[in-house]
């Protein structure tokens, strides 16, 4: 388990380093050979590219205001880095085409140097505007409403009003101010039950504790309470401390277990599938979790990563809720998630099982969303008279 964990992060850090080096070199080639300007460029790039990693390391050992500043700086850079990478690739493709068509000024001409500098500053301006717009978008979750019919009696219930949120990523970036907006949206729905479909905590629980984010969890109001499951980020940061904290602050964690609510319907929660990678364990099959469940009553399953959909259909789950994908979070990564998952966001019905994958309410990495909206999902289930 430890070996796979180390290999995973070694690959991630290698890719991160290569991308930053590529962007750095193209920027270096674009600016004039002025010592003061180049020293400023090197200094700024080092700070931006290392802030996130340095902040995370410091946070794991001593979470404080300085680690927060580093993480915020580095998080914005993660978003900017993506779009700088796309611009640099487009620029290099343009230079390649120029070798055949020859529409740009000669490389050794003053006009070419001026053009490079213009591209540098225009690109920087575009990235700043895009990242800022994505930040405003990320900070303002919407309500996404879904109404479905389940042809099963649910005790005396005629309908069930669910507020579902996934991928909140509580921590340094999604802080009290940000989370209070999400809680307000949840409470505005006057839900019967609140379901948190994994990645409630963003890795390490220390900043959650330091910023007392649990008090906001206690402010969530519903008839039947708040139920949550683990996501891959609970496992990355330490699943037991995270689940303990969440349970202490009003979230009933369903970890390969199911619970009967008010004698009317079941909610089952699966451990995240990355339990094997980060904890060296195996999660239960859905059939084991639902053993003893009366399937004449409605069955709702929460499974953070939207895999194993056919397993839910086979076990006759009525509603299957997931998150994890963030809807791609940053355009054009939504095209990638659509290739990976059978459903990467939104609604799908397979036989009698309804599926919904949420974009998520928060963000991971950059506090930025481009091309999709953060959401709290209002699911209204109608039962037969």
Q: Which structural class do you get from the secondary structure elements? A: alpha/beta
State the CATH architecture of the largest domain.
Answer: 4-Layer Sandwich
Nearest-angstrom radius of gyration? 24 Å
Placed side by side, the strands forming the largest sheet appear as: 1-12-2-3-4-5
Helical stretch count? Answer: 13
How many domains is the backbone divided into? Answer: 2
CATH superfamily descriptor of the largest domain? Metallo-dependent phosphatases
Unreliable residue stretches: none
Round the mean pLDDT to the nearest integer and report it.
94
CATH class type of the largest domain: Alpha Beta
Summarize the structure in short.
By secondary structure, the chain is an alpha/beta fold.
Question: Describe it for me?
Answer:
By secondary structure, this protein is of the alpha/beta class. The protein has two domains: 2-137, no CATH class; 141-382, Metallo-dependent phosphatases (Purple Acid Phosphatase, chain A, domain 2, 4-Layer Sandwich). It has 13 helices and twelve strands. The strands form two sheets. It has a six-stranded mixed sheet. β10 and β11 form a beta hairpin. α1 (2-30) crosses α3, α2 crosses α3 (65-101) and α3 (65-101) packs across α4. The longest helix has 37 residues, at 65-101. The protein is elongated and about 80 Å long. The mean pLDDT is 94.
């Amino acid at each position: 388990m430890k070996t796979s964990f180390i290999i995973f992060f070694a690959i991630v850090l290698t890719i991160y380093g290569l991308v930053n080096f590529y962007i750095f070199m193209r920027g270096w080639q674009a600016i004039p050979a002025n010592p003061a300007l180049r020293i400023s460029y090197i200094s700024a790039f080092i700070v931006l590219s290392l802030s996130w990693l340095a902040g995370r390391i410091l946070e794991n050992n001593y979470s404080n205001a300085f680690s927060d500043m580093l993480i915020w700086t580095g998080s914005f850079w993660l978003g900017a880095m993506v779009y700088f990478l796309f611009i640099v690739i487009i620029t290099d493709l343009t230079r390649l085409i120029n070798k055949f068509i020859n529409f740009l000024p000669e490389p050794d001409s003053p006009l070419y140097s001026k053009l490079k500098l213009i591209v540098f500053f225009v690109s920087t301006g575009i990235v700043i505007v895009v990242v800022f717009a994505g930040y405003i978008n990320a900070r303002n979750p919407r309500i996404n409403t879904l109404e479905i019919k389940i042809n099963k009696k649910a005790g005396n219930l005629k309908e069930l009003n669910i507020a579902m949120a996934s991928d909140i990523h509580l921590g340094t970036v999604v802080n009290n101010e940000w989370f209070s907006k999400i809680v307000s949206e949840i409470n505005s729905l006057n839900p019967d039950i609140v379901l948190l479909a994994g990645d409630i905590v963003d890795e390490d629980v220390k900043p959650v504790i330091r910023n007392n984010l649990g008090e906001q969890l206690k402010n969530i109001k519903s008839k039947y309470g708040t139920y949550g499951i683990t996501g891959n980020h609970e496992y990355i940061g330490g699943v037991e401390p995270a689940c303990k904290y969440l349970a202490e602050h009003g979230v009933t964690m369903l970890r390969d277990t199911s619970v009967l609510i008010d004698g009317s319907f079941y909610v089952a929660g699966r451990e995240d599938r990355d339990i094997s990678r980060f904890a060296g364990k195996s999660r239960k099959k859905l059939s084991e979790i639902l053993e003893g469940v009366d399937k004449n009553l409605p069955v709702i399953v929460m499974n953070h990563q939207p895999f194993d959909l056919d397993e839910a259909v086979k076990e006759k789950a009525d509603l299957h809720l997931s998150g994890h994908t963030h809807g791609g979070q940053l355009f054009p990564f939504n095209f990638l998630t659509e290739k990976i998952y059978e459903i990467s966001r939104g609604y799908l019905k397979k036989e009698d099982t309804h599926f919904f994958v949420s974009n998520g309410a928060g963000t991971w990495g950059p506090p930025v969303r481009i091309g999709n909206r953060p959401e709290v999902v209002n699911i209204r289930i109608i039962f037969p008279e």
